[in-house]
Automatic annotation (TrEMBL):
Keywords: Metal-binding, NAD, Oxidoreductase
Name of the protein in its database record: Glycerol dehydrogenase
Signal peptide coordinates: none
This enzyme's EC code(s): 1.1.1.6
Pfam families associated with the record: Fe-ADH (PF00465)
Pathway the protein contributes to: Polyol metabolism; glycerol fermentation; glycerone phosphate from glycerol (oxidative route): step 1/2
Domain Alcohol dehydrogenase iron-type/glycerol dehydrogenase GldA intervals: 11-156
Annotated organism of origin: Virgibacillus halodenitrificans
Length: 368
């Protein structure tokens, strides 16, 4: 039965453009007249002023509350209680991935709609029906799978382009893997992120994601270096925030993210961004798939062009220790991780050898 059940899941609305913050009330008022806004500290005053005005002018109410740095159950409970006390009927999250995940979880426990406003474009977090919850000490607690995607995602290109280039480019790295992982999962008829089968629509969006970043990624990166936004920046944002998130959710993940997950255990890589590690996971996946040289070169030249880290050394690795990378490979093949979506069976030893081969390729092309 499940074999033939495919899906595409997505936010109800995805809006990309400039000056969305000062228009926030326009996008929340469909859902409610009293917004509870969970906001990163760095943008709290600006949001209160700009978005606050839009609520006042529309005759709507709003509460702005600072996000306390970590998406813990305690933080979620605090906001769920706060939203209830305030009598809010729509939740808004403004900030980085953890803030957005807190807003999604708060909306879920409050049974209210949620409007998501990312301030960095570094991951797929904004569009997905998932909240990653951490413990008070910063370690992973659990995944909270949500029954639906956010109601609205607002991608303000001026705000996203003003964030450090490294975050923007890390988002491109995460998006670079989307097509290849969806392709593997589709070939395998594996499970996508909502535990159903990859749909044609998911595959199509993943494909468009790859084509869009190849076409506009470099132009966008150069614009963001100058803190400005152009049509190329907005196209790239559409790819990194929408096409990548929705494409991965419907198309499924495979080796690249499984290897990334294994790599989180390597201490000297802790400063690498999610999307930066995913890029190395992708190179390893291409080796495992014995992808054509042409395809590998296209990916590697693009990685270099947008300034993503290519080799393990670029990622911050101090020294290659066999034992450490054997356990990365072991973790990447753990039961329930997405390595199972590769078209052929993959063992930890296959992954270990592919990691070495991928790094050798990366070193070869590094100074070319
Ligand atoms: Zn990712």
């Amino acid at each position: 039965m499940k074999k033939s059940v495919k899906s595409i899941t997505s936010p109800k609305r995805f809006i990309v453009g400039q000056h969305l913050l000062e228009d926030l009330s326009t996008y929340t008022s469909t859902y409610g007249n009293h917004a509870y806004v969970i906001c990163d500290e760095f943008i709290l005053d600006r949001a209160k002023k700009e978005a606050g005005n839009s609520f006042d002018e529309a005759g709507n109410q709003s509460e702005f509350v600072k996000f306390n740095y970590e998406n813990t159950q305690e933080e979620i409970d605090k906001h769920t209680e706060g939203a209830k006390k305030a009598g809010a009927n729509v939740i808004v999250g403004i900030g980085g991935g953890k803030t957005l995940d807190t807003a999604k979880a708060t909306a879920y426990f409050s049974k209210l709609p949620v409007v998501i406003f990312p301030t960095i474009a570094s991951t797929d977090a904004p569009c997905t029906a998932l909240s990653v919850i951490y413990k008070g000490d910063g370690s992973f607690d659990r995944y909270l799978f949500l029954p639906s995607n956010p109601d609205v995602v607002l991608a303000d290109s001026a705000i996203l382009a003003a964030a450090p280039t490294r975050f923007f480019v890390a988002g491109i790295g995460d998006a670079l893997a989307t097509y290849f992982e969806a392709r593997a999962c589709y070939r395998k008829n594996g499970d996508n992120l909502v535990n159903l089968k990859p749909s044609l629509a998911g595959m199509g969006l993943a494909n468009m994601c790859y084509e869009t970043i190849l076409e506009y990624g470099l132009q966008a990166k150069l614009a963001v270096d100058h803190g400005i936004t152009t049509p190329a920046v907005e196209n790239t944002i559409e790819a990194t925030i929408y096409l990548s998130g929705v494409g991965a959710e419907a198309g499924g993940l495979a080796a690249a993210h499984a290897i990334h997950n294994g790599m989180t255990a390597v201490p000297s890589l802790h400063h690498a961004q999610h999307g930066e590690k995913v890029v190395f996971g992708l190179l390893t996946q291409l080796v495992l798939e014995s992808a054509p040289q042409e395809e590998i070169e296209e990916v590697i030249y693009f990685i270099k062009e947008v300034g993503l880290p290519l080799t393990l050394k670029d990622l911050g690795l101090d020294e290659f220790r066999e034992e450490e990378w054997r356990s990365v490979a072991e973790a990447a093949c753990a039961e329930g991780d997405t390595m199972g979506n590769m078209p052929h069976p993959v063992t930890p030893d296959d992954v270990y050898q592919a990691i070495i081969a991928a790094n050798a390729l990366a070193e070869y092309y590094h100074d070319e």
